[in-house]
Amino acid sequence: MIKIEQLLINDAKKKLVDISLSIENSLALVGESGSGKSLTLKAILGMIPKNLDYSLKMNSDFQRGKEISIVVQNPFTALSAMTNIDKHFEVDKKKKDELMKLVGLDKSYLKRYPSELSGGQLQRVVIALALEANPKLLLLDEPTTALDAKTKIDILNMIKTLQKDLKFKILYVTHDIESVRVLCDKIAIIKSGKIVENGKIVDILTNPSQEYTKSLIEANFKNRGFRS
After folding, report:
1. Domain 25-41+63-185 is of which CATH architecture?
2. What is the DSSP string of 119-149?
């Protein structure tokens, strides 16, 4: 289990984030814009803006960039447009081929440029790059926002399979509650930098205790006919 024992983030006027989290397998951190989701990811990666103060205590001393990797929201901006896929990797040819195979892409894609790939293909490349360091913890920052519905489900199912095979933990940051059912077994709801409720996905989605959580669920499933 990976534990964020305490994360505190402050600006000059107030406390922005004050949370603790346990990631047993796959945890979704869900909240509206400005709730503290992105700041949490930045703190784990050591990328908090200089105008903010923060402290982070974890039960493991991870080497950022080696044992923690991130898959970002927009694959179109995650890669250098002037560099072919092959040159984005820092491992040898055999490992590159293996990584591409893991994400369902033929090694011939290594010779292509980002502009020659679809959004789903680009996100698969970004995931392959994130797996390059054999992470213990994979951070997902809204990784399917730029994708169509079918591609989104395909990518989430692929990540779920990769997690099972490669044994990494997942912290999935999103406002899309519908998608967390595909990937995660537990969920934490964040509001104004605080965790207001957490537990198993099915328990929170079918019987939320907070009005804030109910409003998030209603917003997500208003036109989708949610069923547990």
Report:
1. 3-Layer(aba) Sandwich (3.40)
2. HHHHHHHHHHHHHTT--SEEEEESTTTTS-H
